[in-house]
Write a structure and sequence with these properties.
Length: 696
């Protein structure tokens, strides 16, 4: 079996256009995995192999590849940067042991960097920082380091300093060894020489080195005391051990700089992956959870080949050879021909083909072990987040939680021949992407596609058209409104039906009140004295919960309602669970309109970059869109404006922003929270929904 201490499972993540895919491409070239470098802008990058990725120059789905550096095996996942595809980042970070956060030297810490950083914090993934694009106009390494501290609240440990800026950027100073790495003009990554530090940087480099050593030695009190009291500097191995320890504990993040596009500085990042990022055995083992409750059992999946087989399916991908299930093996060994259990479905599956992925190419495997990230071909009933395990030792790994879609469109096939094709294609796409959901409108028969943003749904429609040959009519984007209540109410409802034979009777007295935002639906019973027997409480809860899917104003799902059952009455013969469930449904319809029903709309966290000259116009436009300006800060080549804006006002915003800023403005947005709709907007939405229903 392979030596797990020589494994590195890492992800590369960043804001859109910070240079993740280019950095991955350079890593593959340096490690000898590819012989010709492909560029993103030419649509030739190895990990951007979808047609849509090559055309648009963006990464849409995460791609896995494996390479070797200094006798260490690296399983690398290149992730998308665009907010509409954050689910790819989230699920990749879930199964990785370390990561490289790439930041643009001129853009700095951008909104998607913040989201991805937050995901990485939640998954407790050790990270390196690579400040990229230092050859660009307005690039400033020291400003980006400051933003990492201020915006991310992280502690960057500066390991390299840039030599020269913008178009004069020629190399980096290694702070630890106090050597300069200078690349020549050939543009080849291997053409560099190690020299002394430029004279004008000697003092800076020494100051950063002292800071580096002091920060690193905080991991070892004995070494720190020797260093402070006796002035003896520890050996290089001891310093590296301390940096590795601090990186693993997330106390700090080793920070490197360079230009991936110009092939400068990537070798030092690869060395750092080997030196400082943890192997699979050094990270906290994945907790096992109770299948029924989802609560941790206290046991963990210890990373070892001697343990029973345990793996997590984190991605499904449909390709020309059938469904590929990407799995991260946490413990044990998997051989071709083994039978494994899917603990979610309770069904067993036989492993036919296993492959190691290199973007969309693959290498056949006969065996895989703890620490590996591989793909299995042709698994039937496995979905993202399912646990695969040894049938003799069933277990459940911590599942994944995915964001709810915020936007939907109605689609219908252009011809009858496409109806069946569309059903099969959409089934495959939903399995691949848990943030993409589909439902059928029962009244109109239309198919509703739901996703994370306009681009997300645009790409899905494009894939249906090109990959599956389904021509679609696409409707206008729809906003996922919600409903809630604003005031508490105490009420009573009696369901009574006696028309010969056994009757139905259920009386409930209850209080309904608004719950804390984000808490959903809560039910409790405080009935004493047996007026409503305990066995009927679940039926009452089920009745109320079932009605939360459709509110009274416009039929949108209801959020944040707390219901307390405090009294009632029952009949010894006529009362049943069904009678009480019907009573709860009637009670909901009766009381919600009295409790100040209110329409809620999704609010997006919007981040706009604009040149200085257009700041006033952009802010004015956001205000007209009912936006709340939160912050504005000067960037090197313009201003970044942060605002909260209703999603309904943001459709087609990019075209408008480009017009205002002569094509130089950019923006990104992600879902933030739900807020009450202003009365005039609510009236309009409710009227439209009623019209729709009347038309049907």
């Amino acid at each position: 079996m392979a030596d797990l201490s020589h494994y590195r499972n890492i992800g590369i993540f960043a804001h859109v256009d910070a240079g993740k895919t280019t950095t991955t491409e350079r890593i593959l070239k340096l490690t000898g995995k590819i012989h010709k470098t492909g560029e993103v802008h030419d649509g030739a990058a190895t990990t951007d192999f979808m047609e849509q990725e090559a055309e648009r120059g963006i990464t849409i789905q995460s791609a896995a590849t494996t390479c070797f550096w200094k006798d260490h095996r690296m399983n690398i996942i290149d992730t998308p940067g665009h907010v509409d595809f954050t689910v790819e980042v989230y699920r990749s970070l879930k199964v990785l042991d370390g990561g490289v956060g790439v930041f643009c030297g001129s853009g700095g810490v951008e909104p998607q960097s913040e989201t991805n950083w937050r995901y990485a914090n939640e998954s407790e993934v050790a990270r390196l920082i690579f400040v990229n694009k230092l050859d660009r106009l307005g690039a400033d390494f020291y400003r980006v380091v400051g933003q990492v501290k201020k915006v991310l609240g992280a502690n960057p440990l500066v390991m390299t300093l840039p030599i020269g800026t913008e178009d004069e950027f020629v190399g980096v100073v290694d702070v630890l060894t106090q050597k300069a790495y200078v690349w020549d003009d050939t543009g080849l990554p291997e053409n560099y020489e190690v020299t002394d530090i430029p004279a004008d940087m000697v003092d800076d480099a020494a100051a950063y080195r002292e800071e580096l050593i002091e920060t690193a030695l905080e991991q070892d009190e004995d070494l720190m005391m020797e260093y402070l009291e006796e002035g003896t500097e520890p050996s290089m191995d001891e310093i590296k051990r301390c940096i590795r320890e601090g990186t693993r504990k997330l106390d700090f993040f080793p920070t490197y700089c360079g230009s991936a596009f110009k092939n400068k500085g990537v070798q030092l990042v690869l060395d750092a992956v080997v030196d400082y990022l943890p192997s699979p055995t050094e990270v906290d083992a994945q907790p096992l959870t109770d299948e029924e409750t989802g609560e941790p059992t206290g046991e963990v999946a210890t990373v070892s080949t001697d343990e029973p087989f345990r793996a997590l399916a984190f991605k499904i991908m449909d390709d020309r050879f059938g469904a590929l299930t990407f799995i991260r093996i946490y413990s044990g060994v998997l051989n071709k021909g083994d039978t494994i259990l899917n603990s979610f479905t309770g069904k067993t599956e036989r492993i036919g083909r296993m492959v190691e992925m290199h973007a969309d190419d693959r290498t056949e495997l006969n065996t895989a072990q703890a620490g590996d990230i591989i793909a299995v071909v042709g698994m039937k009933n496995v979905q993202t987040g399912h646990t695969l395990c040894d049938p003799k030792n069933p277990c459940t790994l911590e599942p994944m939680i995915f964001p709810e879609p915020v936007i939907s469109i109605a689609v219908s096939p252009k011809d009858k021949g496409s109806v069946e094709k569309m059903g099969i294609a959409i089934g495959k796409m939903v399995a691949e992407d848990p943030s993409f959901q589909v439902e059928t409108d029962e009244d109109s028969g239309e198919t509703i596609l739901k996703g994370m943003g306009e681009l997300h749904l645009d790409i899905k429609v494009d894939i249906l058209k090109r990959t599956y040959g389904v021509e679609l009519e696409v409707g206008q984007p729809q906003v996922a409104y919600r409903e809630t209540i604003t005031q508490p109410i105490e009420d009573s409802y009696t369901h009574k039906k006696q028309s010969g034979g056994s009757g139905q009777f259920g009386k409930i007295d209850y209080r309904i009140k608004p719950a804390e935002p984000g808490t959903g639906f809560k039910f409790e019973s405080t009935v004493v004295g047996g007026n409503v027997p305990k066995e009927f409480w679940p039926a009452i809860e089920k009745g109320f919960a079932g009605m939360m899917d459709e509110g009274v104003l416009a039929g949108f799902p209801v959020l944040d309602v707390e219901i307390e059952l405090f009294d009632g009455g029952y009949h010894a013969v006529d009362s049943s669970a069904v009678a009480f469930e019907i009573a709860a449904k009637g009670a909901f319809r009766q009381s919600i309109p009295k409790a100040g029903a209110q329409l809620l709309e999704p609010i997006m966290k919007v981040d706009v970059f604009t040149p200085d000259d257009n700041v006033g116009d952009v802010i004015g436009d956001l205000n007209r869109r009912r936006g709340m300006i939160k912050d504005q800060e000067a960037a090197s080549t313009g201003v970044r404006i942060k605002a909260d804006v209703p999603l309904s006002e943001m459709f087609g915003y990019i075209g408008h922003l480009r017009t205002i800023t002569s094509g130089r403005g950019q923006f990104s947005m992600e879902f933030s929270h739900y807020m009450p709709c202003p009365a005039n907007v609510a009236e309009e939405v409710i009227a439209k929904e009623k019209e729709k229903k009347a038309a049907k």
